[in-house]
């Protein structure tokens, strides 16, 4: 993808007042979302949609350059650096089925529906639409499930899927657009080969940059300001380096983030982690906020580009494709997971039980977002023969409807479905896990005191430290005596004991 770097200078000067106003609006809307207990991306999209309908306001346009270079690298990097490499590797088969298999299956399913149900759509155009709406969005997915207390395995799979599925969709999108613009068709084996090369190249470049920065950061250990600045630069370096050599910038950033996550304990001091986390939390909130509110503000621009179909028909097409996207994800997940588990059991591999409720929530969490909108906006205006790109406005409008339906409808119903299906982790189980962790810490600390510090401490000080740790351990041992999930009668007693333990600290 060609990136117009000079665009950002003009953008920053001409829209500074708009950016400042949006920052104030974001802060206010986030407070509202917290008060009404609704995921803030939904509130921001709806607010942007409402603001866009106010007469006399200037149109706000999202360009692909802004999304792919300004927003995407830091958002992907932050998601990757918060991803456990152990969990990512552990669930790599599930992530691969969703990020590659499901994206291609969705692309094909949407293409079939669009070809037969939407007038004027050729097969290449139908595949363009399928590739655009096929990948769930990393920002939308992580924001939608945050705070819903889903099982850790489901969270790891959803976050891992959203990190790498963009590469699959963008390659399918590229070939479909070439087929439309040139009036020809693409060769399947060439597309498959390019996917492997582009993906592998992106991973290799991102990994190399991650290790290079790890080496640099080790030399700057315990310099929080410089290290925080370097982590801000890192995702942009990784993305641009990969795109400039023609491989996946998305996978490059993800690979870099995973390397940093894996080596974080070696390269960042406690002070750096504290400062860096505060900085990145604020930055990601602002970027997420701008992304979702700009999606809503984009409606007038999209409507103005539509021609050739009545508006009610376009809304109907958008709802149809939205339903296809949702249903295809559910159809894919249930059989592939069951078959995979059966094959693993046949090979003697231990498989964790997955309820139908968990699989349904996994299927219901495929919210689309800014990546789909950016790829739709990146469609060329004209083809190689100089004619207008066919159905461009229609594709844009349908994409917007799919984003709105999946983000708002699925996002609003997701908490209700999680509660109804009983998928969320119970409060008792979370408390039990926390207490087990505290017990491990107490036992490890006591061992360290007895083995390492005992010869160096005066007897009264040693006795006081040992007594306090042993007392804390006894409290926790009492709490954890029953290894099962606590019932309501036991919970009050456990809380009382745990309060005593905290007071003893």
TrEMBL record:
Pfam family, one: Na_H_Exchanger
Claim: Disulfide bond is one of the keywords in the record: no
Transmembrane domains' residue ranges: 6-30, 37-54, 60-77, 98-118, 169-189, 195-217, 247-264, 284-303, 315-338, 359-383, 395-421
Residue span, Cation/H+ exchanger transmembrane domain: 22-420
GO BP term (any one): sodium ion import across plasma membrane
InterPro entries the UniProt entry points to: Cation/H_exchanger_CPA1, Cation/H_exchanger_CPA1_bac, Cation/H_exchanger_TM
Mode of membrane association: Multi-pass membrane protein
GO molecular function: potassium:proton antiporter activity; sodium:proton antiporter activity
Keywords annotated in UniProt: Antiport, Cell membrane, Ion transport, Membrane, Sodium, Sodium transport, Transmembrane, Transmembrane helix, Transport
Compartments, record wording: Cell membrane
Assigned protein family: Belongs to the monovalent cation:proton antiporter 1 (CPA1) transporter (TC 2.A.36) family.
Function: Na(+)/H(+) antiporter that extrudes sodium in exchange for external protons.
Protein name per the record: Na+/H+ antiporter
Origin species: Micavibrio aeruginosavorus
């Amino acid at each position: 993808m060609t990136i117009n770097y000079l665009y950002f200078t003009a953008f920053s000067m001409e829209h500074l007042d708009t950016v400042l106003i949006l920052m104030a609006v974001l802060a206010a809307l986030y407070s509202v979302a917290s008060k009404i207990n609704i995921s803030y991306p939904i509130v921001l999209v709806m607010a942007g949609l409402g603001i866009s309908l106010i007469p006399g306001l200037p149109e706000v346009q999202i360009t692909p350059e802004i999304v792919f270079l300004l927003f995407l690298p830091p958002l992907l990097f932050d998601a990757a650096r918060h991803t456990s490499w152990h969990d990512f590797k552990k669930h790599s088969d599930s992530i691969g089925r969703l990020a590659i298999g499901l994206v291609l299956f969705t692309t094909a399913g949407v293409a079939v529906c669009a070809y037969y149900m939407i007038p004027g759509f050729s097969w290449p155009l139908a595949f363009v639409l399928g590739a655009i709406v096929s990948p769930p969005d990393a920002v939308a997915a992580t924001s939608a499930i945050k705070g819903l207390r889903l099982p850790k395995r489901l969270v790891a799979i959803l976050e891992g899927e959203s990190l790498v599925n963009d590469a699959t969709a963008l390659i399918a999108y590229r070939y479909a657009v070439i087929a439309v613009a040139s009036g020809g068709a693409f060769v399947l084996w060439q597309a498959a080969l390019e996917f492997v090369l582009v993906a592998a190249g992106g991973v290799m470049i991102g990994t190399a940059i991650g290790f290079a920065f790890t080496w640099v950061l080790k030399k700057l250990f315990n310099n929080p300001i410089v290290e925080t600045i370097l982590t801000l630069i890192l995702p942009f370096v990784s993305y641009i380096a990969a795109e400039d050599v023609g491989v996946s910038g998305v996978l490059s950033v993800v690979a870099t983030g995973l390397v940093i996550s894996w080596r974080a304990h070696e390269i960042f001091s406690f002070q750096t982690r504290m400062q860096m986390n505060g900085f990145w939390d604020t930055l990601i909130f602002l970027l997420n906020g701008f992304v979702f509110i700009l999606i809503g503000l984009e409606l007038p621009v999209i409507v103005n580009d539509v021609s050739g179909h009545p508006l009610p028909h376009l809304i109907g097409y958008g709802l149809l494709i939205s339903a296809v996207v949702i249903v295809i994800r559910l159809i894919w997940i249930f059989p592939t997971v069951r078959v995979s588990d059966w094959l693993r059991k046949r090979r003697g591999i231990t498989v964790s039980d997955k309820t139908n409720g968990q699989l349904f929530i996994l299927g219901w969490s495929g919210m689309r977002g800014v990546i789909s909108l950016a790829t739709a906006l990146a469609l060329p205006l004209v083809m190689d023969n100089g004619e207008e790109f066919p159905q461009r406005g229609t594709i844009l409008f349908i994409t917007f409807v799919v984003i709105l339906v999946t983000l708002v409808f699925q996002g609003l119903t997701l908490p209700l479905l999680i509660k109804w299906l009983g998928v969320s982790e119970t409060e008792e189980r979370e408390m039990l896990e926390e207490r087990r962790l505290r017990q491990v810490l107490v036992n490890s600390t006591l061992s360290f005191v007895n083995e390492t510090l005992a010869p160096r401490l005066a007897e009264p000080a040693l006795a006081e430290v040992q007594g306090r740790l042993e007392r804390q351990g006894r409290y926790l041992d009492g709490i954890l005596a029953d290894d099962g999930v606590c019932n309501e009668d036991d919970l009050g007693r456990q809380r009382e004991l745990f309060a005593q333990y905290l007071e003893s600290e």
